[in-house]
Amino acid sequence: MTFSDEVRARLQVRSAQPPAPEPVRLPARRFVDRSFYEAERAEIFGKAWLLAGRLDEIARPGLYMTWEKTRVPLLVVHAVDDVIRCFYNSCRHRGAPVVRVPRGRNRALRCQYHSWTYDTSGKLVSVPDERDFVDLRREERGLVPVACEVRNSAIFVNEDPVADLNSFFGGTGRELSSVQSGELRTLDQRSVTIPVNWKRVMERLLSSPPVPPRPGASDLATTAADAELLDGGHLRIVAPFDAASASALGLASPLDWASLGDEGLPAVGGLDPMFLSTATTYVFFPNLFVTYTPGGIFNFTVWPGDEETTLLEATWLAPDWGEEDSPAEHPAWTERIEWAQARLEAVAAALAGAQDEMKEPARQGLSLQDDSEAVRLWNEALDAHLRGVVPADTLTGAVPGEVRSPLPS
User: Fold this and answer.
1) Which range of residues forms the domain containing residue 153?
2) Cβ of 208: how many Cβ atoms within 10 Å?
3) pLDDT of 268-307, one tens digit each?
């Protein structure tokens, strides 16, 4: 039995007898405490594989881009030996940025402060007035590397030097091994900054996963989703279309999945029929949503700026259009891009004032009885990395009214 067959079987049971939701509490301190955010920064974002971009952004040797989504200045380089590398964007002399322009192309990286120069492999190759630096060993003063790997043209970085990307994806990677996402390019990207803790944004998206429009079927509706926690804290969320939407797409029934296409759009290769016939989203821990459609892949990425600010990015990926004009002006893509902008605005509007609400003295936290199972599963995956680092009364399901123990300083 394939994983999609297992999902269908669970959905059939769910539709016959929907499960009764169990209330779960999320303590308010998770969303407002600076120390809790610092623990997340160290234990989650400091040790996870994070999507830094795609190969088409630095497609040729010599191209580079800076990356600071986690507030740590990184430099991602397409080296002259055709290897993608990542370094801390910090000169080994005085710590100044090696490059200050966000994007560029150069065969050498020269710090503007004192002109220490590095090649694209990170090696220190030139030091002005080198004789003034007694006992300088160039081989020990190269740029500090950060783990960096490319998977299907997606560039992932990780500050943990011993991290392994294959282990990170685990069985989820095998589920998606047939998807030809390496042949996709970034068609459109836009973002919004929301004055709220990043977990509130994650929970909003988990409660209502993206349902992108399809050509000829703009207003699609879904039924209750199947959410499964996978190895590594990843989630698979499969939401069947309701009867009317399934019929509009040409399906015999919501669970009768077929190899659908998006009329007028080139197809993404290797998609399972389940991806084509449902609103299927994978949530890669900790912050990446990947939603599949026959003609393109949609991403949400959620980046904490601090404990009270979040950057939410929306990205559409489309099959490579080569040297032709971008298909962004195609009516189907115009509709999808407008939909993505509307989704950003809707999330921001829904969370307006939410951060101040969590600071109210009487606010015990959030109750999840009306939210999706995915919210609980994701928060428990988060807690697995924080347990023992933060007090027990800040974790998912903590009993309200406990004495609030201090977070470690």
Assistant:
1) 54-158
2) 18
3) 999 999 999 999 999 999 999 999 999 999 999 999 999 9
Q: Of the ranges 11-15, 138-142, 295-299, which one carries the lowest mean pLDDT score? A: 138-142
Tokens, residue 324:
């032709």
CATH code at 252?
3.90.380
> Which backbone phi and psi does 198 adopt, to 5 degrees?
-60, -30
Cα–Cα dist 220/154, whole Å: 29
Instruction: Tell whether pTM > 0.85.
Output: yes
Which of 102, 137, 158 marks a domain boundary?
A: 158
Are 263 and 216 in contact, with CB atoms under 8 Å apart? yes
Q: Which of 350, 407, 379 is nearest to 26 (CA)?
A: 379
Is the distance from CB of 225 to CB of 207 less than 8 angstroms? no
Q: Give the count of domains, the chain.
A: 2
Residues 145 and 14 both lie in one domain: no
Last residue of a domain, one of 313, 329, 358: 358
Inter-residue contact 67 to 102 (CB < 8 Å) = no
